[in-house]
């Protein structure tokens, strides 16, 4: 690693701070990348990695701080400036056009023209050497539709090289790759490095970071909390850097013992993870935390239990009886409710009043001879509004005007006004401020104490450990372990989440 | 709260109500303008004219309001209206001078067959949209052609005149000073309003249009709702078609062609959102009056009839601009 030119970093960030209303996403970040250097960037979900990358991509402007490229200071970048400076991205979700061939994808927006017409020939000639350089096993004419994810990634990298990228930012590039594909990608990275291209490598997979990075930076809560030089990169210090917080007294212990029965998941195979059979049970009166990294299959499981995606094999039992959840409607009829991850997209009808959002799923109970009784609806709505202390002007205001926490409470109110048996919370406090957070935790605990079985998906480590009575951890579609309370630690959860055994 | 905060509340409310206020203001301006410009416009006789003129469009627009509230579209309304009217005529005894190979049946039977036809066409639309998954724009475009085909096959370029007696009464007779067709339209609008505002079904229509995914995750059977609105739209069109034939006094091909654009215009000019979930029958009523007053008023001021077409187009354009802005100007979010 001697070719790293620490003396004149290619890219330097000094004191980058980004404040969103109510949240400081990035707090005084200092970071530098040298020519031909691979910088590993780690941190838990929500540590600020994405915001930092958005700033480098020119999508977000920093609130303060300096971006220094080739020694030239800038306050912010635009998307075009970022591209001109040679910054390119290879995203977790690939941004390719399935309907075009490889060459067209690489040249998108910069098609070579002959007399004003796109010259496919020159396009191919431009792309072929790039693919050779990456050792791709497909040609520029191949349709992207038929490529594997690993091959698509190479197309993305070729695209980056075609704009003479000097810094390629790879965001979880291996999350969908097989072992061999990962190894090949690491080889490509080594080649790029030798050619003088710098790489910022974001990954949860510690082994890969160790394999390819010269140096590692860890973000936590929007701050740089530590650096590791290549020889220091190891699992234990990396996990220590990623954790390292005190649990606050936000959490309430259970007042009742869980009762047998509840929701049992028996040999369930979900869409997207064909070779993992899941066995899990959530008892009445307990909160089962479901931890794991993004893409570990937690949301797939939730969607299967709630009947959004079909269950490919296995069955779901409720109090010992198999239940057919072929649609959310069936799930709701069986008392299985979902508080979805993206409440604006799938939980609320933003342009509708509070009351109508709350009674949406239980309109049957408010119908008198076909007509909906407004009085009965308003009674339930205002009772729920008071019970959950939803801060809203009344029951008739549109939900779009409420804050994130209050919107989440409206979703909860919808289900609490019915008789829940099992409630699945998918990231219940994402985008919710601390005050509302503790109210939501209290509600969840009250629900559990009243005998409801709760499955809580969360990427917030603190939340998983603080709120859960047991924690199931998922890794690549399978359950990699279940932790009992005495075993709870961020270290243990993380080890299981990256697919390792407990110590 | 400070005065500034209060006035911004009012402004926020006004912005939120833009889609309701703008059409109403348009209507008042149009009525004011035509009343000033023509002595013959603001008379009870002319009010009756306007009401009668918007009736066929009105019945079609009731069904279309349901469809547009779900963020879908039905381009086959006029075609289904035409086909249903012709089916009713086909099963009614025609004058010997009409050389259509028709099958005379009792009036009630002809009406039932006609209703069954429009129901079936709507069901095909629903099937294509919800089971096959064809976008409603394309599905109903095909149905537009199918309806035209049915019309062509049944009348073969001829014109039929006779309709079942009940239809003749409702389409062309009056109850005292009020034409029956106006009464039927009012009843359809009222029924549509009650269905949309006070029943579970109506609520689900708004929810499906407002956020399909959230509605589904709350247990709403979105496919059933979409199917129902397509059938409602087709049946409303069918009724409008039968009454329209009686009102015009003849059944022939292509006689409803202008009603497709008129009914869509009425719903959208009234302020119902093309993006779904916002608006309602109240908006459609205003939209109908805006179009009715405009069409009727332009006749009263003796305007070039070719210019009339352009003016209608411009009014529709303005309504669409307002529709899109109203969507954007939802009440601003509190931080």
Explained architecture:
The complex is a heterodimer of chains A (503) and B (335). By secondary structure, chain A is an alpha/beta fold. Helices cover 32% and strands 26% of the residues of chain A. Chain A has a six-stranded mixed beta sheet with strand order 6-9-10-3-11-12, sandwiched between helices. In chain A, strands 18-21-22-15-23-24 form a six-stranded mixed beta sheet, with helices on both faces. Chain A is globular, with a radius of gyration of 25 Å. Residues 1-6 of chain A have low confidence and may be disordered. Chain B has helices at 3-16, 18-37, 44-53, 55-69, 77-90, 107-132, 136-155, 165-172, 180-198, 200-210, 212-217, 222-248, 257-269, 281-300, 305-328; strands spanning 174-175, 178-179. In chain B, helix 2 packs parallel to helix 14 (281-300) and helix 5 (77-90) crosses helix 12. Chain B is mainly α and 335 residues long. In chain B, a hairpin with a 2-residue loop joins strand 1 (174-175) and strand 2. Chain B has 15 helices and two strands. Chain B has a two-stranded antiparallel ribbon with strand order 1-2. Chain B has a domain at 54-257. Chain A binds chain B through residues 21-22, 306, 308, 327-329, 332-333, 338, 340, 345-352, 356, 360-361, 363-364, 367, 370-372, 398, 400-403, 414, and chain B through 16, 198-200, 203-204, 206-207, 210-211, 213-221, 277-278, 330-335.
